[in-house]
Amino acid sequence: MAMAMRRAAALGARHILAASASASSRAASRRHMGSLDAGAAMEKIRAAGLLRTRGLIGGQWVDAYDGKTIEVQNPATGEVLANVACMGNRETADAITSANTTFYTWSKLTASERSKALRKWHDLLMSHKEELALLMTLEQGKPMKEALGEVNYGASFIEFFAEEAKRVYGDIIPPTLADRRLLVLKQPIGVVGAITPWNFPLAMITRKVGPALACGCTVVVKPSEFTPLTALAAADLALQAGIPAGALNVVMGNAPEIGDELMQSTQVRKITFTGSTAVGKKLMAGSANTVKKVSLELGGNAPCIVFDDADIDVAVKGSLAAKFRNSGQTCVCANRILVQEGIYEKFASAFVKAVQSLQVGNGLEESTSQGPLINEAAVEKVEKFVGDATSKGANIMLGGKRHSLGMSFYEPTVVGNVSNDMLLFREEVFGPVAPLIPFKTEEEAIHLANDTNAGLAAYMFTKSIARSWRVSGALEYGLVGVNEGLISTEVAPFGGVKQSGLGREGSKYGMDDYLEIKYVCMGNLG
What we know:
Aldehyde Dehydrogenase, Chain A, domain 2; single chain; alpha/beta
């Protein structure tokens, strides 16, 4: 009852506005989506058959062996959406066995056959785009327009790797002796353990599972316990597409037990992980005993450099997109906005004005551009970072506190005059806080940008072509956006340097981490 009252108080006014807006001249489908509340959204998902709460092992939907469950909550309201199976080492061991058995049939299919199954999966993801987006918004909190964008983005990896499945080429090496032929083959590595985060519940799975299945590998996925419902729905659609039982398995619940089982198993030949640097290091160390191949996409501390020759409008728009997408909860978010002194005041004024226009609210409402943070711990981390900055001389230019909506909502925030001794500079805030840092010269900007152990994404805004080449080359990052704040795409390699990870995802290079190279020497050929 108390939860319902809190929800009504926080969301009632906006539901009235959304209902009023739905009577306007927008397209009928968008009008219908905008009027959905959480209950209606869940009914829509159930009607599509996409609300799964059990794990997937060997093509069967399975409860936890001990009957335990965990709650999946809506971060915008605190309501419990579902109780899902809380699995551990025994279920994971069975999932690994299933994946290992299926590997020997799935890997023997032709590339064309695997490609067709993946293409069907892509088509099903797209035909259920609205239900998947609703599910994502409910369990993760992101606005519907971002969730719909993630379905497009996530499905694009399945489509891309369905095509790349037919392009795994080997090589022929000129022999050193006349009676020999030297061949290079590329073969699937085997069973893959994929551990994925909560901030992109679909795309972080498809970006790993797509290339793995395309190469002929089989997969055991462990989604975040905060957002398992999207993963289970996507897996259901994979089964419907003809991905065979055991090729894709999903276990969720007790993260340490699941992770340990994946690392200790000799049948698992690769671990792929997206998440924090601290956990990535543990997985890397834990995989050493069985000498697994490891790919890691870890934390970032992205600089966004605005030079005094930048187009202010372009820089504001790009910085806003790079910072506040998913309420600042992405590993490539602009974590530090470095602004050259000559335009600092002008940029800060325009940027603050742009941030003021962001609408905070429940992601089911069409007007919302900023949803809640994932949980209370995330809000407390943001508060800690902002408090540290103000105690050391930074000034709050906008926001700086919890939102009046309550729950885990936080006001979009701009903090001025941040320096490199503050947490906002040194660590990833993972929230809707934009620190502004003044600098004098290009050399100083490069030094500040590289003054971190992270090296995932960086951004810069300038009208100078020479500077864009010079600075992008000097930045110690795996991804660089020049005059653009949204740079991720399925056709380009995604990954970091330094302590932001190993390997690349997406693009033709994303296949490499799921393949082994075999050299074959054929002799006595006459």
